[in-house]
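Allow me, if you will, to draw on your knowledge of protein folds for a short while. I have a record of one protein: its chain in single-letter code and its fold written as discrete structure tokens. I should value your view on which stretches of the chain appear to form regular backbone elements. Thank you for your consideration; the sequence and its tokens are set out here:
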Amino acid sequence: MRAQPIPTSVGIGLRPAHVAHVLQHRPAVPFFELHSENLFCAGGALWDAFDALRRDYPVSLHGVGLSLGSADPLDPAHLAALRALVQRAEPALVSEHVCWGAIGGRHYNDLLPLPYTEEALDLMVARVGQLQEALGRRVLVENVSSYIHFSHSTLSEWEFLAALAARSGCGLLLDVNNVYVNSVNHGFDAQRFIDGVPADAVGELHLAGFTRKHGLGGELLIDSHDQRVDAAVWALYGYTLARIGARPSLIEWDQHLPDFAVLEDEARLATEHLDVVTALAA
């Protein structure tokens, strides 16, 4: 059963704690996104819930563990499991991250950044090509938050993403929160980042909350996904929509999960921004 297309509206990242609520109340959410790895099982309660969910809602799959940018080859077992999942679930969108998170058989509980060099770009182009060939479809890749900057990087992050999309044919999942987090952490203009991303490559936008930390080195933002979207990120989201046009957007919340109504309210706020750009384009 092929999933319905993702509408140009605001969806919610569905976590297991909210599955029962969604199945019981069938809220008016335009689409849901689930983490791919949570569905690598052959069956069980979560798969039953997913099957029931995708009959009524468009769904996308968002991977967090493939480690596309690792110096090690892609894990064949992980890639095979993802291919089997995509063939079985037929999601509207499949996405991954521009990062690494595993090497030498060890997996780290984080999405770790790459140096933005020609060598890393060549590696990512090859890995994205391998992924798209294995799945038989175009994928979206997401920019990640980071807390270090590699001094030997020769490209800006946005130049890296633009070149990756152009050379591999993939799309971009532009995380607006991550753009803002990195702009503060690394001292660049967030709007310049948005201006440097090819609009026609962007297939989806993500929004989430961050945590502010203060220390001897100044302010640091942590992409914690455990609170409401910050006012500065809402402003950047508005700028992004004005720059690239309306795109499917998603509210993410992964820790200290609130009542589902809080996520719906965040989606309502995003919809108000989306409606503005949609009205201007009409």
Remarks:
- The first helix runs from residue 16 to 25.
- The CA atoms of residues 125 and 168 lie 5 Å apart.
- The chain has a mean pLDDT of 95.
- The chain has nine helices and twelve strands.
